[in-house]
Design goal:
The chain is mainly beta. The protein has one helix spanning 2-23; strands spanning 37-42, 48-53, 62-70, 76-85, 88-93, 99-104, 109-116, 123-125, 138-139, 144-149, 155-160, 165-170, 175-181, 186-192, 197-202, 207-215, 220-228, 238-243, 250-254, 258-259, 264-265, 274-281, 284-292, 300-306, 382-391, 396-401, 406-412, 424-429, 434-441, 446-453, 460-466. It has one domain: YVTN repeat-like/Quinoprotein amine dehydrogenase (Methylamine Dehydrogenase, Chain H, 7 Propeller). It has one helix and 31 strands.
């Protein structure tokens, strides 16, 4: 009798629990929510953009992909949004701007959405027939995060934070066709068209993974080569990896000595957070130059710039990134003085200047791709990149000019009425010397949008705030 009673009692408890659980309501984020933004994308039309609210703080039951637009008055206008599985990681948009792919760290997979319409009337939507709040998740290994597309955009390369795998997804069949092992803690992956390799950075080591991925008659083959970075100081933890505007070089942001157990940053005389410029030669990594900075570095964005150019006969602008060697033409008479640049302005040299940008140390390799002269036709000639690096604890973004390998400016949030610890950053070029910059104050649920114009008196101008 007692056994029957206990059985009935347990059955009643189970039924009551299931009843309460079924009555639990999901918490939906409001349209256009700003909640732990992890990624941005600016459309080629120059006015539409996406941002990804990750829901990292688990305030809601979903993340959100949000479509916005800058209207004719310069205001940031909400267009529409889609729910994505929490916790959202990163996103990538196809080159034709018709599809977007989002990783979900909690649900261990990827979802895809369509970008319908045209400029001024873009709209996010999932495929027809989707049941529930979002379509079925394509399952991968645990904690997918950074992702990129291969050259013909038939494959999606997804990396994983937890164990460092690389998942290869066939987009036509929408299935995982290959999983390979990388170093754990992958922070970023990019594709280099020049070499045909993928490069991945890691928070767990000072290594860069050089990945070859190709399709054979029988299957899809992935091979990985780990390339150590020989830093001048002890260090590890690469938080961001980007390619230069001309595709010849790469930039890596090293945090150095980050304690995963205490979530603290430690500095001593043997460590230095730094920006490393390197290139790939014969499957080896060669450091071109380094720049030591201070603070706990976050992510990085690159905005290429070139000299002003005249329109050609057909009304088009030659926006070539080609650079000419200028070592033989440098003079000491017009050496650039860093103090000549004001606090709020990043100086760019007009076409024809042949200034010496920096004295080379005995052990430092000259970077010919970052210096350029304009020829008589005044077509566009590459000068260099502006590199934006977030420094969360110092509440600022530092602006580095690759042509000089020096910090030329900063965006400070210390005087703002609201706290901002910037971490995620994204840049989009719109011309030879113009572009957009997004800065996400991740923990503060706020993001800033800036216009960049190197030929203007106010080089970095705030357009609006997302909050």
């Amino acid at each position: 009798m007692s056994k029957i009673f206990r059985f009935l009692l347990l059955t009643a408890f189970a039924a009551a629990f299931m009843s309460c659980d079924s009555d639990t309501k999901l918490i939906y984020p409001p349209d256009g929510v700003v909640n732990r933004i992890t990624d941005f994308y600016f459309f080629d039309d120059g006015k539409s953009f996406l941002y990804l609210s990750s829901n990292m703080n688990r305030r809601y039951d979903f993340g959100e992909l949000v479509l916005m637009e800058i209207d004719d008055e310069g205001d940031l206008v909400y267009k529409n949004s889609l729910l994505v599985p929490s916790i959202a990681g990163k996103m990538v948009v196809a080159s034709d701007e018709k599809n977007v792919f989002v990783t979900t760290r909690d649900k261990h997979g990827v979802v895809r959405a369509k970008i319908a319409g045209k400029s001024g009337s873009y709209r996010l939507q999932y495929d027809e027939g989707t049941k529930g709040d979002y379509p079925d998740i394509l399952k991968t290994k645990k904690e997918p995060y950074a992702l990129t597309l291969n050259e013909d955009e038939s494959k999606l390369m997804v990396t994983h934070l937890l164990n460092g795998e690389l998942s290869v997804i066939d987009l036509e069949e929408w299935k995982v066709i290959k999983t390979s092992k990388l170093k754990f803690g992958v922070t970023e992956i990019l594709y280099d068209k020049n070499s045909g390799y993928f490069l991945a950075s890691h928070r767990s080591s000072g290594n860069i993974s050089l990945i070859e991925a190709r399709e054979t008659l029988e299957n899809f083959v992935v091979s990985v080569l780990e390339l150590p970075i020989d830093l001048p100081t002890k260090g590890f933890d690469v938080r961001s990896l980007k390619q230069s505007g001309d595709g010849e070089l790469f930039y890596a942001v090293f945090q150095n000595t980050y304690n995963e157990d205490t979530y603290e940053y430690a500095y001593d005389e043997d460590t230095a957070p730094q920006i490393v410029t390197f290139k790939i030669e014969d499957k080896s990594l060669k450091i071109v130059k380094t720049l030591a900075v201070s603070g706990n570095l976050g992510e990085m964005a690159v905005l290429p710039y070139s000299s002003e150019s005249e329109e050609s006969g057909d009304g088009t602008v030659d926006d070539s990134d080609a650079a000419e060697e200028s070592d033989d033409d440098e003079t000491d008479d017009d050496e650039i003085d860093d103090n000549d640049v004001s606090e709020n302005q990043v100086e760019t040299r007009a076409a024809g200047d042949s200034d010496e940008t920096e004295e080379e140390s005995d052990d430092e390799t000259t970077d010919d791709s970052d210096a350029a002269e304009a020829d008589d036709s005044k077509t566009s000639k590459r000068i260099g990149d502006l590199i934006f690096v977030t420094v969360p604890n110092d509440e600022k973004v530092i602006v580095i000019d690759s042509a000089r390998n020096s910090v030329r400016d900063e965006i400070s949030y210390k005087d703002d009425k609201k706290d901002c610890k910037p971490y995620q950053v994204y840049a989009k070029s719109t011309g030879n010397t113009t572009g957009y910059l997004f800065v996400s104050c991740f923990q503060n649920d706020r993001a800033y949008l800036y216009s960049i114009d190197l030929m203007s008196e106010e080089v970095i101008k705030k357009i609006g705030v997302l909050e």
